[in-house]
Design goal:
The chain is α+β, with helices and mostly antiparallel strands and 158 residues long. It is built from three helices and six strands; from the N terminus they run ααββαββββ. The chain has a single domain, classed as Roll (Nuclear Transport Factor 2, Chain: A).
Length: 158
């Protein structure tokens, strides 16, 4: 019995050692995907269309789900709007970000609150699909919802 316990303990230790690098690699990929998402919203806040375009795949699509239906199209109009001077900062604050990755495909789901300057405009969720190119992760699809401003974004910046 003692020998079996020793073998089981040794086996579990080996398994833990073997899975640690895989978990670390997955964690690094999640951090890379999160950095792309953060860069998108940093670009929006800065009014920098070049920064926003840099995280989009060349064939990216954007969609919006509303009570009236679902619209989808290329991000060109959105990217232009970000780069067009506006009086107030476009500040999309996200939280509860969930990222899943399998190979070259990542999926991200997050709550958001969109502020025009200091005023809460609307809330919703973003759903993103990202593809890992040879240059890094790129957003291939971004869909969102748009609800009245009844959400309460966290104050801790998460």
């Amino acid at each position: 019995m003692r020998r079996i316990n020793c073998l089981l303990t040794l086996g579990l230790m080996l398994l833990a050692c073997m899975s640690a690098p895989a978990a670390q690699a997955q964690s690094e990929e999640v951090d890379e995907v999160r950095a792309v998402i953060d860069r998108l919203f940093d670009g929006m806040r800065a009014g920098d269309s070049t920064m926003v375009r840099s995280v989009m795949h060349e064939s990216a699509l954007m969609g919006r789900a509303t009570d009236q239906g679902f619209r989808v199209g290329p991000p060109d109009q959105f990217v232009r709007a970000v780069g067009t001077p506006h009086d107030q900062v476009w500040d999309e604050r996200i939280w509860d970000v969930h990222i899943s990755i399998d190979g070259r495909l990542a999926s991200a789901w997050m709550e958001f609150a969109f502020f025009l300057g200091e005023n809460l405009s609307h809330c919703g969720v973003n759903s993103m699909q990202l593809y890992r190119t040879d240059e890094g992760w790129k957003i291939v699809y971004l869909a969102d919802t748009n609800r009245p401003p009844t959400c309460e974004p966290p104050t801790d910046g998460s």
